[in-house]
Design brief:
Blueprint lengths: L1 H48 L18 H5 L2 E5 L4 E6 L4 H6 L1 E3 L10 E5 L21 E6 L2 E13 L15 E7 L6 E13 L2
Parallel strand pairs: 2-3, 4-7
Antiparallel strand pairs: 1-2, 1-5, 3-4, 5-6, 6-8, 7-8
Length: 203
């Protein structure tokens, strides 16, 4: 009887330890990602403050994974309805998706054709595109690119198959934005599309 109780105790401890490991892995990954995000934000701040006459000392920033050239092309996406403001990196790679949103198609131009953006759901609520599916039709999305801001109005939100890449195509005569993320299960994709309604400039 005592041996059986000991085995149950050991199994209980093993289950507990396994649970702790499973919980801690995403937290550890997110902790590392947060360091990279902070490094990117620090680098962007230094570049913004620079007058261009001297090189920016980006090599002194720990955990920075992006080059100065990559940072020069960073944009920002703002969706007030879900209180989201995220940077957009120029290329979609696994590393880039871990720290920010990314452009899906190469050499995209804001306000021209179908500007496509990808993003993870994130481990926690509010990170990346975790709340993208909640954005209703009629809400505004703001794409900040340099001195210009492109305002889009949401016109559709749907769940699609991962193979339905046609959602990224340009529509003749329309300037749009298409934002893509995974469903909770990861088996399908959420595609939210907006149409350009305004462009403003701070120049």
């Amino acid at each position: 009887m005592r041996t059986l109780k000991n085995k149950k105790s050991i199994l209980g401890i093993l289950f507990l330890l396994t649970g702790l490991v499973l919980v801690s892995i995403p937290l550890y990954v997110e902790w590392n990602q947060n360091k990279e995000v902070k490094a990117m934000e620090q680098a962007l701040s230094l570049i913004a403050q620079s007058d261009g006459t001297e090189p920016v000392a980006l090599e002194e920033i720990p955990n920075l994974t992006l080059t100065e050239e990559e940072l020069m092309h960073v944009m920002e996406l703002e969706i007030p309805f879900i209180d989201m403001k995220q940077h957009i990196l120029e290329k979609t790679t696994d590393d880039n998706l871990n720290i920010a949103l990314t452009q899906i198609k190469p050499e995209q131009v804001p306000g021209v054709g179908n500007f496509t953006v990808a993003g993870h759901r994130g481990y926690r609520d509010g990170r990346h595109f975790s709340n993208l599916a909640r954005v209703p039709i009629g809400e505004k999305v703001y794409l900040h690119a340099g001195e210009d801001t492109y305002v889009y109005e949401i016109i559709s939100s749907e769940v699609i198959e991962p193979t339905f890449v046609e959602v990224l195509d340009d529509t003749q005569g329309k300037n749009e934005i298409t934002m893509i993320t995974c469903t909770i299960s990861g088996k399908k994709r959420v595609a939210v599309k907006g149409e350009l309604v305004e462009r403003t400039s701070r120049k």
